[in-house]
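Hi all, long-time lurker, first post. I run a small reading group and we've been trying to get comfortable going from sequence to structure in the token notation. Rather than ask abstract questions, I figured I'd post a concrete chain and ask someone more experienced to write out its structure so we can walk through it together at our next meeting. Sequence below, copied exactly:
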Amino acid sequence: MLGDFQQALADLTASPAMVIRARQDPSFLATRYELTDRELHRLVRIIWHRGMQAACTVYRANRLAPLVMYMHDTCKALGASLREVLDDFWAAYPETDVHFFIEADRFRAFVQAILIAGPTLPLEVAEPLRREGAVVSAALLGSHTEDPDLPWYKVLQAAASQVRTEVEDTSSVERQWSSLSAPF
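-- Answer (accepted) --
Happy to help. Here is the structure in token form:
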């Protein structure tokens, strides 16, 4: 009950579409979560509170931050498609990862899969995605503190190496990599 209330509140904060649906039909919350009458009443009051929109905005801004920081040119190349791609990405990955490189790498893989599936995104997305993806993969690899002899670590290392070799301008990657290690 309390756990479901907390999960419902987190899910609502993460999904403006879910807030809209719950505003249209509050009983939707009771079918999805095991809530007491008091908890349901509180959630209904929360979704109608003027601060709910701000909570959703802050949540989405926090999810957007690693993507804009490490996949800036890719986001820019997506142009008008960015919002739809982000909505689809966040629907596919409702759980965020506070490790910025993991979140950026998930986004890279998501956009790459869209590009592979067909020409629905601007062609200008491919080059910055490849370039920034190599930087993110290298940074992700460098951020791991696990034993480099573990099999999964070797697979990650090989994948990062392969992505790096696909980048045409390695000096650009090196400049971006060195800027990542600068103090914040």
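A couple of things your group might point at:
Residues 93 and 100 are 14 Å apart (CA to CA).
Residues 167-184 have pLDDT under 50 and may be disordered.
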